[in-house]
Recover the amino acids of this structure.
């Protein structure tokens, strides 16, 4: 229960910081929710906890009264990654790497920049390492 509460606080902080646009690298807003939520796939113990975190993150990321199309696609990709992580035979480290690349490319498809992908990969892999150390 304590780990779920701390994970909820982590997702809340990431989503709110992402919404403010306060943290930027090379003039690009970081996708902090992606950087935090993908590595959390591999440490969740209860199968309902991760979808609850994704829903919470989506609600925090929505800027209007409804859920934006991009946020909906982002949430569905995260849930698909969660399901795929249970059936793919690869190591979690490699799965994390692939999920970050695929989600980043799909979310940024209309105006894709390689620098955004590289930043997401580096920060996503670093957060994977830290989250595995804290929660595993």
């Amino acid at each position: 229960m304590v780990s779920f509460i701390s994970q909820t606080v982590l997702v809340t902080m990431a989503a709110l910081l992402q919404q403010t646009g306060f943290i930027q690298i090379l003039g690009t807003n970081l996708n902090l929710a992606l950087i935090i939520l993908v590595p959390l796939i591999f440490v969740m113990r209860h199968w309902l906890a991760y979808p609850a975190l994704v829903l919470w993150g989506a609600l925090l990321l929505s800027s209007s009264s409804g859920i934006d199309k991009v946020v909906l696609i982002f949430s569905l990709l995260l849930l698909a990654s969660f399901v795929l992580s249970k059936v793919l035979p690869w190591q979690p480290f490699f799965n994390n790497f692939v999920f970050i690349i695929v989600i980043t490319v799909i979310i940024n498809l209309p105006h894709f920049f390689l620098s955004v992908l590289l930043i997401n990969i580096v920060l996503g892999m670093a957060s994977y390492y830290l989250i595995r150390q804290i929660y595993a």
